Amino acid sequence: MVTFRNNNGRRSNFRRNDRNFKSSGERNKFNNNFSNSENFQRKAPGRNNHNAPKLIEKYNNLAREALSSGDKILSENYFQHADHFTRILNEKEVQKKFNSKNKVQQEIHNLEENKEKNVDVISEKDDNLKDQHSEIN
Predict the structure, then answer these.
(1) Distance (Å, rounded) from C-alpha 18 to C-alpha 27?
(2) CA–CA gap between residue 127 and residue 134 (Å, rounded)
């Protein structure tokens, strides 16, 4: 025998044409602020482009196949797709170079700061030793 849950509250909400099936006030309300461009940006840009070289090869092959069958329009479409992913791949490489350059610059900056701190610490120790020596004499 199958037992059913008590869905009386949900059914009554549905009958009232109230589509908010959650009765608690903790439900997030929709934000109608369309001037905010964050609503339209992708959460993880490049998320689907992690295999761009494979997609370039795929669309080039499809374009050659369409061209050999005589469909110039379809082949041009596939070549445009391949070109798109080529540009994405180039942008990723430029971004990697930029990030690695920034990382190297940051490491050099950190080394210089540490060097300055070490010089300051050494000079403070020297001053302390001189003070101690002068106190002894």
Answers:
(1) 14
(2) 10
Amino acid identity, position 3 = T
63 with 79: CB under 8 angstroms?
yes
DSSP reduced 3-state for 1: coil
Residue type, 100: S
Token pair 């009958």: residue = 15
Residue 133 scores a pLDDT above 80 = no
pLDDT tens track for 13-43: 556 665 555 555 555 555 555 555 555 555 5
Cα 52 to chain centroid distance, Å, stands at: 16
Cα distance between residue 23 and residue 17, in whole Å:
14
Q: 55: how many CB neighbours lie within 10 A of its CB?
A: 19
CA distance 38 to 21: 28
CA distance 121 to 118: 5
pLDDT, one tens digit per residue, over 72-83 is: 999 999 999 999
Residue appearing with tokens 């008590």: 6
**Nearest Cα to Cα of residue 56 among 85, 90, 91:** 85
Which tokens go with 45? Answer: 């840009």
CB 59 within 8 A of CB 78: yes
